[in-house]
Design a protein that fits this description.
The chain is an alpha/beta fold. It is about 40% helix and about 15% strand. It has a seven-stranded parallel β-sheet with strand order 3-2-1-4-5-6-7, with helices on both faces.
């Protein structure tokens, strides 16, 4: 495996690449483009949207960045090793930046929620993030530098009827973030979470916009606004920020 070695204070991004899961559209695509603009070679993970992922890669390359599309279902226990190995071979450096963004929703009220709806959300939104983080920490701890950002949700901080599975997964992701962060803090690796609220993406396209009245800012956010917060947490300037949860929600969780 390539060994990036420690980065000096003047070297950022470090001599490694970044991986964004679920990066073919929406928030993930905006994050991938933002990290590439900051100088990271970026792995654009997707599951079924090959054309969309290719479009993200093309846009990054047209802007002068480096990107590589990599297909994998994050739920597959073998996916982390396969994805990391493919990116390390392609870019010739270790993965030193990881954004666990892939997620799904299967909304239903708790009395009607099926085992499949529960398990699918837990597996995709929580377990996959744990497995990718575990794999990523191997190279980051060796290099004594690294950034991990988990995309949680405001629903992990406040109740939202019909999303008990999603809320449980995102609340679990927040606590996993905090605990893992303190475990590796002395090794130069930071782990943080970003908790978006109502963001204009495919996942929110069919939701009643009247719910926006509950948002103090009275508008939805954009994927780029979420990406800006991720870019900060992945930056050198955020080297003393770890175990934090940054809400991007227009005041919804205040």
């Amino acid at each position: 495996m390539p060994d990036a070695g420690p980065a000096g204070p003047e070297a950022w991004p470090p001599a490694g690449c970044a991986l964004v899961t679920g990066a073919s559209r929406g928030i993930g695509a905006a994050i991938a483009k933002g990290l590439a603009a900051d100088g990271w070679p970026v792995g654009v993970n997707y599951n079924g949207s090959a054309d969309a992922a290719a479009a993200v890669v093309a846009e990054i390359e047209a802007a002068g960045g480096q990107a590589f599309a990599i297909q994998a279902d994050v739920v597959d226990p073998a996916a982390p090793e396969a994805v990391f190995s493919a990116l390390e071979e392609h870019f010739g450096v270790s993965v030193l930046g990881l954004v666990n963004n892939a997620g799904i929703s299967r909304d239903n009220l708790s009395p009607s929620l099926t085992d499949e709806e529960w398990q699918a959300v837990i597996d995709t939104n929580l377990t996959a993030a744990f497995r990718f983080t575990r794999r990523g920490l191997k190279s980051m701890m060796r290099a004594r530098t690294g950034r991990i950002v988990n995309i949680a949700s405001v629903v992990g901080l406040r109740a939202n009827p019909g999303q008990s599975n999603y809320a449980a997964a995102k609340a679990g992701l927040i606590q996993f973030t905090r605990t893992a962060a303190v475990e590796v803090a002395r090794r130069g690796v930071t782990i943080n979470a970003v908790a978006p609220g109502w963001i204009e993406t495919d996942m929110t396209a069919d939701v009643d916009t009247a719910l926006l009245s509950a948002v103090p800012a009275k508008r939805a956010g954009t994927p780029e606004e979420v990406a800006a917060c991720v870019r900060f947490l992945v930056s050198q300037q955020a080297s003393y920020v770890t175990g934090a949860v940054l809400t991007v929600d227009g005041g919804l969780a205040a």
